[in-house]
Design brief:
Strand order of the largest sheet of chain A: 14-33-32-31-15-27-30-29-28
Number of helices of chain A: 31
Structural class of chain A: alpha+beta
CATH architecture of one domain in chain A: 3-Layer(aba) Sandwich
Largest sheet of chain B: 5 strands, antiparallel
Distance between the termini of chain A: 64 Å
CATH class of one domain in chain A: Alpha Beta
Strand order of the largest sheet of chain B: 1-11-3-9-8
Distance between the termini of chain B: 51 Å
Number of helices of chain B: 10
CATH topology of one domain in chain A: Calcium-transporting ATPase, cytoplasmic domain N
Number of domains of chain B: 2
Pfam families (chain B): CDC50 (PF03381)
Radius of gyration of chain A: 35 Å
CATH superfamily of one domain in chain A: Calcium-transporting ATPase, cytoplasmic domain N
Oligomer: heterodimer
Number of strands of chain B: 11
Protein name (chain B): ALA-interacting subunit
Radius of gyration of chain B: 30 Å
Shape of chain A: globular
Largest sheet of chain A: 9 strands, mixed
Order of helices and strands of chain B: HHHEHEEHHEEHEEEHHEEEH
Shape of chain B: extended
Family (chain B): Belongs to the CDC50/LEM3 family.
Keywords (chain B): Membrane, Transmembrane, Transmembrane helix
Strand content of chain B: 15-25%
Structural class of chain B: alpha+beta
Strand content of chain A: 15-25%
Largest interface: A-B, 48 and 45 residues
Main location (chain B): membrane
Helix content of chain B: 25-40%
């Protein structure tokens, strides 16, 4: 359960924990062959082909040379094995590079240069600026006198801003010498993959100053693969090494996704297999009967009178081998090949390159392009997906006065500028909260301009807006903040930071004014997380009004508040907070509880409104895709009003007369149940009317609905083409995807942030927008695109073409194999049902591998309709959605076609030499060339362009 | 236009760029009714004449087919034909007389035809060794020849069921007391003679001992000159087949009577097969084969009919 790391102890932990050798490899040199073969043979198709190939080794029953199956089989295996081997070799090389990197480590009290792979748990590792962190470390010293350092965590979570890391208080003020000799123990949980949590304790051994338990959080760690920035040096104790680091643990191979089409092809393969067994049994019995009644009379065949025990099996097995080509070995290769081409087409598409950043679209998962054409539900995130996630401060309301309502930009509002110039106390306090109630790090560039590194776009917008209003956040030096306002410099000391969590929906800082020593609590957060905690007697009517008004305009609102704290109140609370911070169990919950004790009796200062603009082309894209019969659900963590406004402005829902919004709300089970039933009733009535009905549900009601009224909610989900779910958590997003998937809908989830990752992984197709919230979503996704509007092209052009092409290719593969197989079956009727193969091995192999598999590859460029036509008439997508090009009935069509073609070829063949004059090899060549010509003709006929 | 612009422009022109953007030029024929009707008519007008010409060529061939397997067994033996044909002590001569109905122009091909004889049976087809036929008994990997591989621990050349069951009826043709000259050379494929059957490979241990099937071979003639064997070894694809026996290089007039003296050695009685003798002339298209002509006429006329139907439909409901 727990791990005890003894700092700087060279012996104790060496055997207990693994060394720092990173290994991403799937195989080793020794186990490659068996493991890879085992993996490949876990697929049914491969088992089938292996069985056939093995049966062919028995010369008594094989109709053709075993090479005709072994050749392609070995080829296929070699191709996929060498692909795996190549990938694994590259992984090995990059591992080796990381493992052999030289790192400074303390050994026996002396700093040594060793390879990264020799780091052990408990070692002290020294890093310099811009070094990559080799394993998970607990920070114990930095060059900074305050014990701060900065890291870039892009490789871990995709966020490009710098994060502050701080040394634990117990190690504060140690110098070089001391750091070499430090001894102690870190009590930390066993390795896990949560990169946002590290609940541990540190205890230093005497003679070190502090013998107390010192709590450690994620803020005290340097995680593997992060980079040290803006800090001269740092050192830390290795706590997790090798593959046991947070990054190593979170690495995992995602489960391969199977497209609807693959499932259908598997089903059809199964049907063909059953058909094959039936044919084999019928022919096998017929063959044995014929053998016993006729063949024994044919003296020239010289059948032995007494056969071996397996004699009855010989003829059926021969037919099994003869019919084995019914399931074409080439289909897997062809499909893999064309699928990777579809993916390449997406990568190459110059119309899907994000012009702003120059990032092209990318298909990470190359196997599921067809599914894009069969999407029925799109679940989309709002912020950053539909909107640009470029926050701009637009309006504010300070103590009941609205700014920016006329011009639409508060920064240009003369009233506000005058108030700032006049140092109106309310406005100054408001601006102070804007400027310092955050986790932003100001960085002075060489030119003197100040850049802000912010974790959230909202904070960035607020700090920048405050700077424009002359409240400039200048510098952060450890705990001392410097603010310049109208020429004077004000300093604050940060005492505590109460961080933002999605449950609390607010963040606060406790600061001490260095001039007068007053302690103040500054808070900002969602309206429902601030307004209820205003001090008794404050008039919040104007604020509520402001929040509503702004939300109607589609703006994001934040309430700002503050409260003066008394010295002893703070001291008392501070102790509780420390205690909560050092708990190992349920730390997050305990902290939230303690925070609650401080965050009340606010004086609410005002409301800010931040605009998040819609991305280009979002309304058009949604309209087009909606026409294509795709249903949209919006899942957002934002407020209901804001969500509805955004939904209106991007054509998601229609305004009143045409559309209708149904609300599901309620705080208790009963309320939710009633409103759910009401909505369901309305939905059933209006389902026949041409009216856009959408329902809106918030996270709370959704939780209850999913828990207790799943059936009713599922019915609602099926009836409704549009839904808005606001204030939902990441896991609820994933639950909704799961719900739609359970109703057999093809779902596509699109999002841009870390909170969308679960839904993206859950959905049939995950699309990530490589936007401003980092690359986390784009990495987890099957497709990453730069802008929401590319979705239209991704689905209508790439998805649709892929579906059409694969539908043709897969059925054609079966068709061409069936033709030749039927001819073999017909021939067996005139060759005494003995299982003679009309075709020789070379012909069969050439037919399957060369003559028919190569020409059909032109279909990857086939377009039934031009891109323009499809975009103009997106309704055509319904053919793909309903799977009308590949289903049992179309397959039956191809089956009939192959039967007919086989009959024609066979009849012509046996009569071409006037029946009696036919000679085996002549006949086989005529039949083969007949088949080849017919195949070519079919390909030409079925190709649309 | 800067350099990079020009480069980019040039890149846009390349075929690979067009390929990556899926914009390679393509033609997309639109199947209008007029086009469809024209294509069908065109097909019809090509196929009908071709078919008629083929049919005419096939009809010009004269063929005489005479079944002899029952008649050539003397009356007393007809109850048990198998023991008759297997009994070496009974002479197997037999004569037939064929009446020529129509003038037959030389060369007249002589075929023997076997019915209900499965040369395409899997056991049979596989039972040969092409390498041995070419290289002789020095070639040892002849397991495919089973069960006719060894006799008295000596390899058999040529081995296998096919060679072992060689057809051994012989025919001589007499017209008005004079023997018709039958050319028995060049009846096998030249490529077979030159490349598939060894010039230095002589029959060895063939039809010896317990395993006696069909005809014997002269052990002093190399396989490449044993043309009957070469013809026989080209296995037929269907259970009724004809194989070339020789050529008569004289014309036969109408109402000529040809007497055939034959040795009825080959056993088809065990499995109820028929034996027939065929005399046939040839046209520029080969032997008699009505099928090709009929098929062409059928395809041609059905496409003309389809064209007419389409035309009527199109005229009726023009859009």
């Amino acid at each position: 359960m727990k791990r005890f790391v003894y700092i700087n102890d060279d012996e104790s932990s060496q055997e207990l924990y693994c060394d720092n050798r990173i290994s991403n490899r799937k195989y080793t040199v020794l186990n490659f062959l068996p493991k890879n073969l085992w993996e490949q043979f876990s697929r049914f198709m491969n088992q089938y082909f292996l069985l056939i190939a093995c049966l062919q080794l028995w010369s008594l029953i094989t109709p053709v040379n075993p090479a005709s199956t072994w050749g392609p089989l070995i080829f296929i295996f070699a191709v996929s094995a060498s692909k795996e081997a190549w990938d694994d070799y590259n992984r090995y090389l990059s591992d080796k590079k990381a493992n052999e990197k030289h790192i400074w480590v303390v050994r026996q009290g002396i700093r040594k240069h060793i390879q990264a792979q020799d780091i052990h748990v408990g070692n002290i590792v020294w890093l310099r600026e811009n070094d990559e962190v080799p394993c998970d470390l607990v920070l114990i010293g930095t060059s900074d006198t305050q014990g701060l350092c900065y890291v870039e965590t892009a490789a871990l979570d995709g966020e490009t801003d710098l994060k502050t890391r701080v040394i634990p208080s117990a190690c504060m003020g140690m110098d070089f010498e001391l750091l070499h000799k430090i001894k102690g123990v870190i009590e930390c949980p066993n390795p896990d993959k949560d990169i946002r949590r590290f609940d541990a304790n540190l205890r230093l051994f005497p003679p070190f100053i502090d013998n107390d338990l010192c709590p450690l959080t994620i803020k005290n760690t340097l995680l593997q693969s992060c980079y040290l920035r803006n800090t001269e040096w740092a050192c830390g104790v290795a706590v997790y090494t090798g593959n046991e680091t947070k990054l190593g643990m979170s690495r995992g191979i995602p489960e391969p996704k199977l497209t609807a089409m693959d499932a259908m092809i598997d089903k059809l393969t199964g049907a063909i297999f059953v058909f094959q067994i039936v044919v084999v049994m019928v022919l096998g019995i017929a063959g044995n009967v014929w053998k016993d009644t006729e063949a024994r009379k044919q003296w020239y065949v010289l059948y032995p009178i007494e056969g071996p025990w397996y004699e009855l099996l010989v003829i059926p097995l021969r037919f099994e081998l003869l019919c084995s080509i019914m399931i074409p070995i080439s289909i897997k290769v062809s499909l893999d090949l064309v699928k990777s081409l579809y993916a390449k087409f997406i990568d190459w598409d110059s119309e899907m390159i994000d012009q702003d950043t120059g990032i092209p679209s990318h298909a990470t998962n190359t196997a599921i392009s067809e599914d894009l054409g069969q999407v029925e539900y799109i679940l989309t995130d709002k912020t950053g997906t539909l909107t640009e996630n470029r926050m701009i401060f637009r309006r504010c309301c300070i103590s009941g006065i609205f700014y920016g309502n006329e011009s639409g930009d508060a920064l240009k509002d003369v009233k506000l500028l005058n108030a700032v110039a006049g140092s109106s106390p309310d406005v100054v306090r408001f601006l102070t909260v804007m400027a310092i109630c955050n986790t932003v790090i100001p960085i002075k560039s060489k030119t003197g301009a100040i850049l802000y590194k912010a974790q959230s776009q909202d904070e960035d917008a607020l700090v920048n807006a405050a700077a424009r209003l002359h409240m400039v956040y200048v510098n952060k030096n450890a705990n001392i903040l410097e603010i310049r306002f109208n020429g004077s410099v004000i300093q604050y000391e940060v005492l505590e930071t109460l961080e933002f969590t999605s449950d609390r929906k607010r963040m606060s800082v406790v600061v001490k004014d260095c001039q007068n020593g007053k302690i103040v609590l500054l808070s900002k957060g969602a309206d429902e997380a601030i307004l209820p905690y205003a001090y008794a007697g404050q008039q919040t009517r104007a604020l509520v009004e402001a929040v509503e008004q702004y939300a109607q305009l589609g703006l994001r609102t934040l309430c700002l508040a503050w409260r003066e704290l008394k010295e002893d109140e703070y001291q008392e609370w501070s102790l509780m907070f420390k205690e909560a911070s050092s708990t190992l169990v349920d730390r997050e919950w305990r902290i939230a509880e303690v925070c609650q004790r401080l965050e009340h009796d606010f004086e609410v200062l005002g409301v800010t409104a931040i605009e998040d603009r819609l991305q280009d082309g979002v309304p058009e894209t949604i309209e087009t895709l909606r026409k294509a019969g795709i249903n949209f659900w919006m899942l957002t963590g934002d407020k209901q009003n804001t969500a509805i406004q955004i939904a209106l402005s991007c054509n998601f829902i229609s305004p009143e007369p045409k559309g209708q919004l149904l609300l599901i709300d309620g705080k208790t089970e009963g309320e939710v149940c009633r409103s759910l039933e009401r909505v369901l009733l309305t939905m059933r009535i209006t389902s026949s009317e041409p009216k856009d009905v959408a329902f809106v549900v918030d996270g709370w009601a959704l939780e209850i609905a999913l828990k207790h009224y799943r059936k009713a909610f599922t019915e609602l989900a099926i009836l409704s083409r549009t839904a808005i779910c606001c204030r939902v958590t990441p896991s609820q997003k994933a639950q909704l995807v799961e719900l739609l998937k359970s109703c057999d809908y093809r779902t596509l989830a699109i999002g841009d942030g870390g909170n969308d990752v679960r839904m993206i992984q859950q959905a049939d197709i995950g699309v990530g927008i490589s936007g401003r919230e980092g690359l986390q979503a784009a990495r987890a996704a099957d497709y990453s695109i730069g802008k929401f509007r590319f979705l239209k092209r991704l689905i209508l052009v790439h998805g649709r073409y892929s579906y059409n092409r694969t539908a043709f290719l897969s059925q054609y593969s079966f068709y061409k194999s069936l033709v030749i197989c039927f001819i073999q079956i017909f021939f067996s009727f005139i060759s005494g049902v003995s299982g003679t193969s009309l075709f020789n091995s070379v012909s069969l192999m050439a037919y399957n591998v060369f003559y028919t598999s190569v020409p059909v590859l032109v279909s990857v460029l086939d377009k039934d309709l031009s891109e323009g036509t499809v975009m103009q008439h997106p309704q055509i997508l319904v053919y793909c959605q309903a799977g009308r090009l590949l289903n049992p009935s179309t397959f039956a069509g191809w089956f009939g076609r192959s039967l007919f073609h086989a009959i024609v070829v066979f009849v012509i063949t046996i009569h071409a030499y006037a029946f009696e004059k036919s000679e085996m090899e002549e006949l086989s060549m005529v039949a083969l060339s007949g088949c080849i010509w017919l195949q070519a003709f079919v390909v030409a006929l079925e190709t649309n362009s | 236009m800067t350099n990079t612009d020009r480069e980019r422009h040039r890149e846009r022109e390349t075929a690979f760029y067009l390929f990556t953007q899926q914009r390679l030029p393509a033609c997309k024929p639109v199947l209008t009714p007029a086009w469809v009707i024209t294509i069908f008519l065109f097909t019809g007008f090509i196929f009908i004449p071709v078919g008629l010409v083929t049919l005419r060529a096939s009809r010009s061939v004269v063929e005489i087919v005479e079944r002899y397997d029952t008649e050539c067994v003397p009356e007393p033996f007809r109850i048990d034909k198998v023991s008759y044909v297997q009994d070496d002590s009974i002479p197997k001569n037999c004569s037939l007389s064929l009446k020529v109905r129509k003038y037959m122009k030389a060369p007249i091909y002589i075929y023997y035809q076997l019915d209900n004889y499965y040369q395409n049976h899997r056991r049979y087809v596989k039972s040969r060794s092409d390498r041995q036929l070419l290289h002789g008994w020095k070639y040892h990997a002849t397991s495919s020849c089973q069960p006719v591989e060894f006799n008295n621990n000596q390899p058999i050349v040529p081995c296998g069921l096919i060679a072992w069951s060689l057809f051994n009826d012989t025919f001589t043709f007499i017209r008005e007391r004079a023997e018709l000259k039958v050319n028995r050379k060049n009846i096998a494929w030249k490529s077979d003679r030159d490349h598939k059957f060894g010039k230095t490979v002589y029959p060895f241990n063939f039809q010896n001992g317990t395993l006696i099937g069909g005809g014997k071979l002269n052990p002093r003639i190399p396989l490449s000159d044993q043309e009957d064997l070469i013809v026989w070894m080209r296995t037929s694809a269907l259970p009724s087949f004809r194989k070339l026996y020789g050529r008569i290089e004289e014309d036969l007039d109408a109402d000529d009577v040809v007497v055939v003296h034959l040795m009825n050695n080959y056993n088809t009685y065990g499995f109820g097969g028929k034996k027939k003798l065929v005399l046939s002339t040839s046209s520029w298209l080969g032997g008699k084969n009505d099928f090709l002509g009929l098929a062409c006429v059928f395809v041609g006329s059905s496409s003309v009919i389809l064209a007419i139907v389409f035309m009527l439909l199109h005229l009726k409901s023009r859009r």
